[in-house]
């Protein structure tokens, strides 16, 4: 390997004297792609972000030499010249990295003007070019959108465009494709590879997606509980793993363990007929002064979720699947007929039955960090549903139920060990742990239908397998029904009884999940299945 661009020696990170990273060593050559992999909480993100001192209250020691200059010895003013210029970061959760008060175009343009000295006109053109290069459709229109107006995958791609705007020497990519569907992952990898070849950029990829590592990285370093247990060329490590933890990661894959018996002759938990969801959008020119246009996100969708079964909805980011989920939750206005647990949302509003209906249908959102209040403790977040729907419960019983559910979703071994977690806040947990908290919050009121919007997108492969097994067990034991929204073909294969495929707001194929995935008929479905292979 050529002389290192980044050379990290004896990196240690601690919080309040408690070590979480234990003296790790690694290096990255110019133009090299190094993947840092491990389970959630293994220390991989903390290690990478500590290089730029982006972790609050972290006690960092060791050395991290970038082109011979020790990043850990720089003062704050000197570091500001490195951050976003020589070293850029793609953060894991786009909603926390993008400012909700500014359009994504303005945020990217700010980087182009500050770091590359472009004029306002040049920056506007550069924004459109960058957004187009990351695969966002209609980049001119999306540049004028606010983060909440984009899908999860589109927000992630906008953040990638912002990170690449300064043409950094080193890109730290923290789960850069977490929110992207399988077909777009390849586009992002090709984009990063092209930029790397053009500018000699190195990439430190933090991920739990082993297929991504196999396709993208030159070398891989495996972390477990703050220790670097194995590193080497990707081919060597994947074909001949030396450490037991690496072998366990490579063996982790979602397993199908769902009831294949036909549903009983009972009414469906959810039924939609000719469901249509549209949004007002500004019209170009003077016409926009007087009236709005309409953008149709879901076009005449009809589907059924039987009792105790899982209906999977798969498609690219922006295909309308998350909009469909929000309509099913009664969170968006819609046209057509939509009945949940025997009651239509319109009927519930007329009869003041919304609270009772919302207890029967709960949701696990795609981005757990933005859906969990940063001002509430874990006890308050998970127990909030009981306060609303079961206010008669004593405080002690409510706490006991919260503790039991934390154990059930795998955050602690036993309910008696949950006391230490109850007073902590969401920012004190890893991305995967926060997703499990979101699942616990949804389950606490014992719903009939659970809407799962990318429930495992933020989880590493081992925890993903555990969470899917948990959801499968809950379905068998409690007769739960799931509306599963995902772009992960493996998750559909493991969880879904039936599947519908969405493209541009319309359902293009439907049928039994295993049959559709084995012999897809629509060209778009074939593309999704091939991209996931």
Q: In one word, what is the shape?
A: globular
> For the CA atoms, what is the radius of gyration?
24 Å
Strand segment tally: 20
Distance between the termini: 31 Å
Counting copies of identical and different chains, the oligomeric state is single chain
CATH class of one domain: Alpha Beta
Sheet-strand content, in percent, reads 15-25%
CATH superfamily of one domain: P-loop containing nucleotide triphosphate hydrolases
In the CATH classification, which architecture of one domain applies?
A: 3-Layer(aba) Sandwich
Largest sheet: 6 strands, mixed
Mean pLDDT over the full residue set = 88
Roughly how much helix do the residues carry, as a percent range?
A: 25-40%
The poorly predicted ranges are: none
From the helix content, strand content and strand pairing, which structural class follows?
Answer: alpha/beta
Q: Record the strand order, biggest sheet.
A: 6-7-8-3-9-10
**Total DSSP helices:** 23
The CATH topology of one domain:
Rossmann fold
Provide a compact summary of the structure.
With 533 residues, the protein is of the alpha/beta class. Among the domains are: 96-166, no CATH class; 270-341 and 448-532, Rossmann fold, CATH 3.40.50.300; 371-446, no CATH class.
